[in-house]
């Protein structure tokens, strides 16, 4: 099975192609900047480099967040558009799981994936990697003060991993890591293309400011 993977929960987006569990190729792009959108061109370039066409894609896996609102929205729209166009299955995978699987070396242990949630907080979730390299979540998603990430990890007997953590734990989630967690892809149910959206975690800053200025929810009419 040819799987196209997209991940953009941080300001660094990535795409990867898998044949069954084998990595065929990958690309990384910056997600900042209004002048151009780089993720879709990266998909096209990767397909061409691997000698494939978009019609060869049988499954699209998209990092489901939480993370940067706009970046996740772009990746989600691309994933849904491709899946709809070619009739591929769409599955979602936790961006925090991809983060843990992106660490080098990928080795057994307990980890707390941590990404910036802004406003002085981090999203955190505990994962365990067994001796066979199988990754499983070991707790739900939580929101903690940024200064308390290390304490949270210590309480859970785990090592914190994520952007701007001390080396060698300074890791960003990458689409290529999906090759290490194919068990999660296989367990993921096919998403409803009409209804699915990434788990943004919280509202976009622009929406928060609009609602504060107008005193009502944006979608209230």
* Low-confidence sequence ranges: none
CATH topology-level name of the largest domain: Nucleotidyltransferase, domain 5
Number of domains: 2
Helicity, as a percent range: 25-40%
Number of helices: 6
Strand content: 25-35%
CA distance, first residue to last residue: 44 Å
What is the residue-mean pLDDT, rounded to a whole number? Answer: 90
Biggest sheet details: 5 strands, mixed
Keywords:
28% strand, Nucleotidyltransferase, domain 5, five-stranded mixed beta sheet, 27% helix, alpha/beta, single chain, 6 helices, 221 residues, globular, 2 domains
Explain what this protein looks like in three dimensions:
The protein is of the alpha/beta class and 221 residues long. The protein has six helices and ten strands. The protein has helices at 39-49, 69-86, 95-101, 149-155, 182-187, 205-214; strands at residues 2-7, 12-19, 22-30, 59-63, 89-93, 109-118, 121-129, 135-137, 142-145, 159-161. Strands 3-2-1-4-5 form a five-stranded mixed sheet. Strands 6, 7, 8, 9 and 10 form a five-stranded mixed sheet that branches. The radius of gyration is 17 Å and the shape is globular. The chain starts with a strand and ends in a 7-residue tail after the last helix. The model has no long low-confidence stretch (mean pLDDT 90).
How are the SSEs placed, and which strands pair?
Blueprint: E1 2-7, E2 12-19, E3 22-30, H1 39-49, E4 59-63, H2 69-86, E5 89-93, H3 95-101, E6 109-118, E7 121-129, E8 135-137, E9 142-145, H4 149-155, E10 159-161, H5 182-187, H6 205-214
Parallel strand pairs: 1-4, 4-5, 6-10
Antiparallel strand pairs: 1-2, 2-3, 6-7, 7-8, 7-9
């Amino acid at each position: 099975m040819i799987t196209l993977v997209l991940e953009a929960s941080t300001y660094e987006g990535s795409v990867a192609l898998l044949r069954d569990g084998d990595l065929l190729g990958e690309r990384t792009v910056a997600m900042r900047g209004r002048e151009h959108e780089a993720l879709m061109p990266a998909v096209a370039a990767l397909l061409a480099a691997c000698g494939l066409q978009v019609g060869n894609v049988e499954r699209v896996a998209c990092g489901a967040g939480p993370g940067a609102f706009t970046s996740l929205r772009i990746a989600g729209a691309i994933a849904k558009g491709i899946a709809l166009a070619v009739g591929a299955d769409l599955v979602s995978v936790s961006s925090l799981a991809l983060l843990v699987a992106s660490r080098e070396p990928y080795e057994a242990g307990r980890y707390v994936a941590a990404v910036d949630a802004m406003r002085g907080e981090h999203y955190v979730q505990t994962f365990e990697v067994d001796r066979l390299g199988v990754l499983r979540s070991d707790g739900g998603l939580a929101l903690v003060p940024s200064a308390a990430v290390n304490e949270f990890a210590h309480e859970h007997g785990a090592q914190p991993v994520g952007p701007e953590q001390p080396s060698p734990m300074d890791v960003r989630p990458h689409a290529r890591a999906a090759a290490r967690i194919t068990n999660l892809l296989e367990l993921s149910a096919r998403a409803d293309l009409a209804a699915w959206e990434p788990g943004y975690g919280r509202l976009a800053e622009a929406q928060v400011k609009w609602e504060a200025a107008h005193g009502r929810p944006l979608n209230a009419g």
